[in-house]
Amino acid sequence: MTASCVWGHGFVTLDLPGLEGQRIGTYLMNEIVCWARQWPDADVNNIELLAGQAYGKNTARRNRFYEKFGFNFDYTDPEHRAGMSRAVKVRDLNAVENWKDNIAERSVFDFLLNQADAERVAQADVARLTRSLHDLIAERKRAERHPLWWAVREVYSRLGSWILAAASIVSVAALLHFAR
Question: Model's pTM, two decimal places?
Fold first, then answer.
């Protein structure tokens, strides 16, 4: 499928740093297998595993990936780093659905609706933050123009109820003291 001509060697590779092991490759390969099942008697092109693509524990992982879809290989080295898949018909390929543990399919329409909703929420947040910023700038300008008045207002707004309560207690105490 990936070769540009009958005799060419094509390949597909995914380089998704940080997403290794999330079953994205399994999902995509499963989609290909399910699509190809339209032609059950078709021959599947051989898959060539190259030694340069195998390293450490990834070698066994790579090989298991293909094997779970129904590919069998004749390996050319004892470490199973290189080899060629045996002939297989599409009907003999396996669908693999363990990708569902990590991936959820969503329709493009639903995705776009969610994106539009997220954008509206973000725009509302930006508008709210912009208003807050303008309010803070105006407050800073008032404080710079009248620092003493601003400080009195700040103390009163933070401690006003305590100041009123203390003033009330002192007033009642003074009345009681002078009423005798």
Answer: 0.60
